[in-house]
């Protein structure tokens, strides 16, 4: 792992970092660019030339049946390359031939043949087709060595096809969208060496993928590299930079960037710009600032959308301020913004945390009247709330409703039910639910086991707690030393010395004692 300035770590595969030096005039460094190499392709002669000419004739006359008469062994990479070069002016025919070869003689396609079709397609601005070929496997499931080779082959065949820089952009875009961060980073830096730069759209795809993988520091580093390379950002770029600042805990930087947008020093902000900063405020618990920004939207000709309201409702709900969340919900409806399932689930989950099942019933009915179909998250939140209130029978009724709605209980469903039974001092029933959970293919987590053990210990059933502990060991989960000692001491106090020793021996046999001590 590599330490970042924020104190976080990143995998070693991303060690090749973007520079942290402030952006400079990149154009002044163009004299240091590496010249694009040129590697000519040998001319086709003899039987190779005969094959290319005959194949060309069949292709332009759409005589694919005659082409099929040739044995697969005749379709060598060299011949396919020359056929593609011969028909490259017609990108539709070129792609048709490439796909034909992929079906009839796939072993004939190499990195070199792929590079030719990629040049042809990108030169003719058929970027989706080019990216589809790349996504189909070339370079995506490859090793770093193969990725380097692909870049080298594209580079050396660049002048042969009189290609476009967009061929490298397409490759970068696919790596970015596929979250192949190491390949994308290395490709960007190699492209830069030769004066090739990705489009802002591809850069945005990379920023989005980094943020989606919770790597805001790397996203900010990449944005700095974009500026150094004079890649002009658009408002979507800057929105993601704001999101990176917010995720990285640098809310003041996000506010500064937003102010530049709002004051017209950069680009004009859009609705997403406001939503990003509102989300940043909510994440930090600065709800008054979030509401103030929401109010300012109208003054700037922006109307809040469903994302704006959902973000605010979620912010208040997480703070347990359900009255304020409900007020925002009412404002949302008055503004003729239609609530969606996220809106209702957020509110239902919030009221469940407070144990207000009556309010949840009202929200559920409103949701159904609005034609919004509840999902498993809706039911889980309601079940959890009922269990918190000790209304386990009503919770069990909702579980039966899942089957009618063709929804499948998941780990959260079972965990809520287990919590409810333990709260009612019924750990035996909770343990039965745990068994059902496992049979259903759901995976209990540490919290599930902790709840069960606490439930058994509460009623002094240390035998039951010991059974749960052994289940934990079977699932390679390590309890804390406090939990183990509570059970061990409880067994001894109840005169179950033999069972206590058995538990201790089981821990010894499973080599759990060292793990427990390390965890503690």
TrEMBL record:
PPR repeats lie at residues 164-198, 199-233, 234-268, 270-304, 305-339, 340-374, 375-409, 410-444, 445-479. InterPro entries: Mito_RNA-Proc/Resp (IPR051240), PPR_rpt (IPR002885), TPR-like_helical_dom_sf (IPR011990). Keywords: Repeat. GO terms for molecular function: mRNA binding. Signal peptide: none annotated. It comes from the Eukaryota. The keyword Plastid does not apply. NCBIfam families: PPR. PANTHER family: PENTACOTRIPEPTIDE-REPEAT REGION OF PRORP DOMAIN-CONTAINING PROTEIN, PENTATRICOPEPTIDE REPEAT-CONTAINING PROTEIN 1, MITOCHONDRIAL. Belongs to the PPR family. P subfamily. This is Pentatricopeptide repeat-containing protein. It comes from Linum tenue. The lineage of its organism: Eukaryota, Viridiplantae, Streptophyta, Embryophyta, Tracheophyta.
